[in-house]
Amino acid sequence: MSDFLKKYSAIRGNDHVESLQLEGQIAAQIKSKRQKLKISQQELADLANIPKSTIGRIEAGLTSPKVETLLKISKALGTPFIIDGTPGNEDKNMTLKT
């Protein structure tokens, strides 16, 4: 953990920092899969039937998507949405640590 995260964790708590890191990992997985499929944010938004701004905000880490939104995105990307309690799961599926 970086010095910044250690200091921030001392202020906000480990759970908050871990939650932010998890959201960042999910956002990165969405962006990576979208780019691998060579589709734009607009195309993903159209496939998932959600606004393009939502995709942009999720990928930029500016919003925490609802489970319903994640399910729509995973379906549009053809990627299973799996809730997996295993830390560091680096497979091709979107994972959510519980």
UniProtKB/TrEMBL annotation:
Matches recorded under InterPro entries: Cro/C1-type_HTH, Lambda_DNA-bd_dom_sf, TransReg_Diox_bact_type
GO CC term (a single one): cytosol
SMART domains: HTH_XRE (SM00530)
Keywords: DNA-binding
Domain HTH cro/C1-type: 30-86
GO molecular function terms listed in the Swiss-Prot or TrEMBL record: DNA binding; DNA-binding transcription factor activity
Protein name: Helix-turn-helix
